[in-house]
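S.,

As promised, the nicotinamide-adenine-dinucleotide run. Input:
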Amino acid sequence: MKILFYDATSYDKESFDKELKKYEGIEITYQETDISEKTVLLAQGYDAICAFVNSNLSEPVINKLNEMGIKLILLRCAGFNNVDLDRAHEYGMTILRVPGYSPEAVAEHAMTLALAVNRHVHKSYIKVRENNFSLVGLTGVNFNGKTAGIIGTGKIGAAMCRICRGFGMKVVAYDMFKNPELDFVEYMELANVLQQSDLISLHCPLTEETHHLINANTIEMMKDNVVFVNTSRGALVNTEDLIQGIRSGRFFGVGLDVYEEEGANVFENREDELLEHSVTARLLSFPNVIVTSHQGFLTHEALEAISQTTLQNAIDFEKGCIKEGNQV
Ligand code: NAD
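Predicted complex:
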């Protein structure tokens, strides 16, 4: 099977090349640019393409892939809200993903953001480098004894619940389905989670229902001085409302690995460019906000698991024995 691998980075090549040695009959060509209406034409002559979480797999791109006879899209990620599934299914394409690779990687990053913003690590790092050893402005709060509110307790949310418990926090959660592994978690309505929590972390998927789940109304329900973290999807939060909430002093700190309009920024070095939107710049203007660039998944363990499952998906497709949960 010949696979064209879009948006390849050095860490992708390293992890996939290492795994590739274990799989026979797969040939990968790495392509640095991501898939678009123009670059989709490079897939001519390949059997499959491999794409990532922000790759453009919209209707025009899917139409072109179909014209070129591509029957398999390998997503090296869990999310698939970037794929026009209706059109792809209409053409009989198979779309395989990696449903879970390392929930702990994302949950640990969520706690990293919460701790960093709480203890002002982003500020103290810069201050000490400038020989400013003053502690003024760096006071944080103890998480021990406080309440963590987790929204969405699937694989990543459950890992975050366990981490918060390890910090000595009371853990409350909102999800339509109780996770039976989390006997130490108190489930309650969303409003109650928002009202009671000192740390709120989002771990539900982006759906019609969860779009702008965090908005002016739900921010109003939160405690003053809450630490808020989003490592799930940007559009779970109405950013304009979040910015208003930050301006009005509602949040002790905000840590975002994902945010609306991140699309053009994610994984790109844009240091010489003027950004077309003001959302990122406005978020970065606040001293109590830390933004990272969708790096929650980025650990060696997660990359290894992603490459293994993606290559196994390719083999399973050829053998006609696709693993349940991997196809979307
Ligand atoms: P999962 O499917 O295991 O869990 C999602 C949970 O959310 C489920 O328990 C589900 O019942 C719950 N849920 C669904 N709708 C809900 C709603 N309206 N309100 C409350 N809960 C709801 O998924 P997961 O593997 O834990 O991943 C969670 C999310 O993390 C993904 O959807 C993705 O957006 C994000 N993610 C981010 C990164 C990153 O690098 N930052 C990496 C992987 C995944």
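The mean pLDDT is 95. The pocket of nicotinamide-adenine-dinucleotide is lined by residues 78-79, 100, 103, 106, 151-157, 174-177, 203-207, 209-210, 231-233, 257-258, 294, 296-297 (CB under 6 Å).

- D.
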